[in-house]
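Quick illustration for those who missed Monday's session on complexes.
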Amino acid sequence: MIRKQFIPALGRATAPLVEAEFLTLYPALALALLWFGPRGALITGLAGVPMAVLARARAARADARPAAGDAAGRRPPRHLVTAALDRAFASQEETGKASACIVVGLDDPTQLVATYGQEACDRTMDRIGERIAAVLREHDIVGRIDRTRFAVALAPVRRMDLEAVIQIAGRIRAALGEPVSIDAMTVYVSASVGFCLTSRAPERTGPAVLEAADLAFEEARRNGPGGIRAYSTDIGRAALARDALRDQVEAALENGEIVAYFQPQLSTDTGDVAGFEALARWQHPSRGVLTPGDFLPAILAAGLAERLGEVILGQALSALRGWDRAGLRVPQVAVNFSSAELRNPNLAAKLKWELDRFDLAPERLTVEILESVMAETDNDVIVHNITALSRMGCNIDLDDFGTGHASLASIRRFSVGRIKIDRSYVTRVDSDMSQQRMVAAILSMAERLGIETLAEGVETIGEHAHLAQLGCSHVQGFVIARPMALNQTDDWLRTHRAKLDATSGVARRTG
Ligand code: C2E
Ligand code: CA
Ligand code: CA
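Prediction with calcium ion bound:
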């Protein structure tokens, strides 16, 4: 009889619990497993995280022999997978059999945690582990390599070709397609799969195959959701290029190559400067000035969103002090905050400290939050942060309005002071009736809610004039000025002031 065993009681191990310990702690169960001819994939958990279980006690016992330098015999699941792959390489010549490594991971773990919570997410991973094991064969090994990913070492066979592994990957993905029930919740997961055949590995070692499968997984996820990718040398080369950019971007943040540029925002009533938006630029030593589209993805992928935020905020506040000292009137500066920064529970305290350090009142800082981020209102930390920032006195701008789905309730709840009408509504607003109707609708909604408006991406004099006529209170865009380096702002401000004085002089003379 073929049986697959799952022992959920072990799912809450607090210390790394490996098969050797399992055999010592639960000899009766282990014996039972052997007795019933257990089969199915070996699942091994991550230290300290819910651990699903094993079925192949015999193989587990063999594997639990202490590794060199690991007196306790404790080996992380990753090691069990790479060791199996190493064994496959060692026996390949003799047996003519080949293996492959598969990495399966969640497409959007952050979203899953935000929606269902960490505990439900961990339990979902347990269920996913069981499902993966259920579609594998007896000698395959599954290990949970981190909170959101599993790795599989397929047992060596003679015909381990691309097609065979694509089929297995497809089976795994299909098995994860059904929702998971956790308590009363139905959790929908989307997972991607990457794999590497031992015959295509960049090096003949277990860790190299796992790493290659992981790169293929990342590629699958980028092309996902629910992607499947095989490792190829192209994927390897692209990863090297990304790594290089990642390293460079980190250095660039620290050595001052990444700076804030400033784009003015004008009041349509008076023509006065209402503020500047700080926009990140990379003054690259060989490639010139790069815009966020070129480097923001690398920053986010490297987990450096917060660091970028600190750098830009510091420069924005320091710029305000500079304009104040030069006697140039700039009421406030706006800084873009990423969703990663808004998830930091310490954000409000950090901003307060920075404002104090520059001796600036909170109302001099505008926090720009994307509409799509504000729509994530079930994330408690984000809700808490936005509320705390507006209580502190910072202005809240709702960025890219019209592209997300923030509710009117969230606009009220977070004390949004101004909405930034996305460029897609602003383009050709002077000549296109449907654009005009949209903008007019947004403006009248804002007026009823008592909040201000700013149109972004204003590119022509016609658009500017029309927006002013429709009653939009602020404008920003290339027709006024492109984002500029800090050292150009003083001249720009003085020239702008002179132009305003000249036209108001003309107005007075002709009025
Ligand atoms: P965003 O916040 O919507 O910024 C406005 C973008 O529109 C900027 O692009 C700006 O240069 C561009 N823009 C301004 N006026 C015009 C115009 O008249 N026509 C056109 N076609 N474009 C105009 P940029 O600087 O490339 O920034 C792109 C995005 O990168 C920003 O979009 C923002 O989401 C993000 N970003 C920029 N700086 C930072 C930062 O310091 N932190 C974070 N988290 N994100 C940033
Ligand atoms: Ca913005
Ligand atoms: Ca925007």
